[in-house]
Write a structure and sequence with these properties.
Alpha-Beta Plaits; 4-stranded antiparallel beta sheet; alpha+beta; Aminopeptidase; 15 helices
Length: 470
């Protein structure tokens, strides 16, 4: 393809077409179903799907068909099917994945910013869902248009945009099964829901951690009692829960004690982490606004902790009054939401059973323990890179970014990648994206680096062409 033509198409589309529509998408409060139990009634997810569907339809890509698929009781899915260019009909399907659902807005946005008010400032688009992951459908569509405008080739391309990723993609297995005949043989998966540790180069995510969530309730009383009267006779529900968690996690180091949640780290992934440390020594310690110091002084250990070792975060609590309203009361129960990140190759179901056993066996004081809301998803580890893709990556690294690309394991989870890895074991995977170290996904002031997103789009266009010619 002609390099200049690809770049011109990408930049002009982003400036004139993508940013106005993406800004409109930011304004839609399309909370993921886990954060909006009335999502079907509120209609925000449907509105987001229709907003993007209308924009893509207006592109009038020759032969493209668009379909909104909504199985009973499941959040909607947008499927865009673009036929192959004439030379590339036998190369299989390229599946380009993204999502339109969003995390909650959360408070604390900076002055002049708001989760549902798009603001373009200093080359950034601010607003919830801008980088995670609203831009992806626009980038995928623009990459296809750029290939065609530059006289390139692409195989059949299916853009799939779901609305449940931030809820763990519970509906995707049913949709993939429903669409299996339509998808055909998938030979390349492009996921744009990732990123890297700087905005200088193309970052490839080669592994994603699995996840395990559970709500744990410990109950010690039928009703709350005066703490002075009951303490010393009745155990604290918080102390009992703390003791149960101590069976799972080393409180001093954060190390997870259950063998089912750990794996041996592949040496090639250790080498990748070393490569990241070499280009950015010390960066792992400054990625986040830490008060105090990180859990280790060793950069390599920090990256491996974040990508290949299990961790536990307590992300929710119930049963506690606000400090200003806390009386002298021994509470009847305590509920905590435990969120585990699992190594990419760990068995999530085996991990779930190990956690269940640890929390419910030989409970101190025979207190009542109730587990609810279990969610277990496997991670993903990328297959070896095919020669054609390796060559294409070196090309776009030089021509588009001017810096060598880097690979690393991402600490987050994209459940769909594990599902696709199992279903299409022969496929190649390009998991990348526009997210940077300070993009503020899931937290206040989320923003998209517009120039970087354009270059990621340009890179995808070249890789689509390379795939078709491989």
């Amino acid at each position: 393809m002609e390099q200049k033509s690809v770049r011109e198409t990408v930049v002009s589309n982003w400036t004139d077409e993508v940013l106005p529509s993406l800004s409109g998408l930011v304004a839609i409060p399309a909370l993921s179903p886990a954060f909006d139990s009335d999502w079907a009634k509120s209609g925000h997810l449907a509105a987001a799907v229709e907003h993007v569907r209308s924009w893509i339809a207006a592109r009038e890509i020759p032969g493209a068909t668009l379909e909104v698929v909504e199985l009973e009781g499941r959040s909607p899915l947008l499927v865009v099917d673009v036929p192959a260019t004439s030379e590339s009909a036998e190369k299989g399907t390229v599946l380009l994945y993204g999502h339109l659902d969003k995390q909650p807005p959360v408070g604390g946005w900076s002055e002049g910013l708001d989760p549902w008010t798009p603001v373009i400032r200093d080359g950034r688009l601010y607003g919830r869902g801008a980088v995670d992951d609203g831009y992806s459908g626009y980038a995928a569509t623009t990459a296809i248009e750029a290939v065609r405008a530059a006289g390139g080739e692409h195989s059949r391309a299916v853009v799939l945009l779901e609305t449940g990723e931030e809820s763990g993609s519970p509906d995707l297995p049913a949709y993939v099964e429903h669409l299996k005949e339509k998808l055909g043989t998938v030979s390349l998966v492009v996921c744009l829901d990732a990123g890297g540790t700087d905005y200088k180069r193309l970052w490839l995510t080669t592994s994603l951690r699995g996840m395990l969530h559970v709500n744990v309730t410990v109950k010690v009383l039928e009703s709350a009692q005066h703490s002075g009267m009951a303490s010393g006779i009745v155990a604290s529900s918080f102390r009992v829960l703390r003791a149960l968690i101590d069976r799972i996690e080393n409180v001093e180091t954060g190390e997870i004690k259950l063998a089912e949640l750990s794996v041996d780290i592949p040496e090639n992934r250790v080498d990748e982490a070393r490569g990241v440390v070499e280009i950015a020594p010390g960066a792992a310690k400054t990625l986040f606004p830490v008060v105090g110091r990180p859990v280790s002084d060793d950069d390599l250990e920090l990256l491996l902790n974040n990508s290949w070792r299990p961790t536990l975060s307590v992300i929710g609590a119930e049963g506690f009054p606000l400090p200003a309203e806390a009386g002298n009361v021994l509470r009847d129960s305590t509920t905590l939401t435990l969120s585990f990140r699992l190594p990419p190759t760990a068995d999530a179901k085996a991990a779930m059973e190990a956690v269940r056993h640890a929390l419910t066996t030989d409970v101190p004081y025979d207190a009542s323990v109730e587990l609810s809301g279990f969610q277990a998803e496997n991670g993903w580890n990328a297959p070896d890179t095919a020669p054609w893709l390796d060559k294409a990556l070196h090309h776009v690294s030089g021509e588009v970014f001017g810096e060598p690309h880097k690979s690393y394991g991402m600490g987050g989870s994209i459940p769909f990648m594990g599902l696709l890895g199992e279903k299409y074991p022969e496929a190649q995977f390009l998991v990348t994206g526009a997210c940077g170290p300070d993009s503020n996904i899931h937290v206040p002031d989320e923003w998209l680096n517009i120039d970087f997103a354009q270059r990621v789009t340009e890179a995808v266009a070249h890789i689509l062409d390379a795939h078709a010619r491989s």
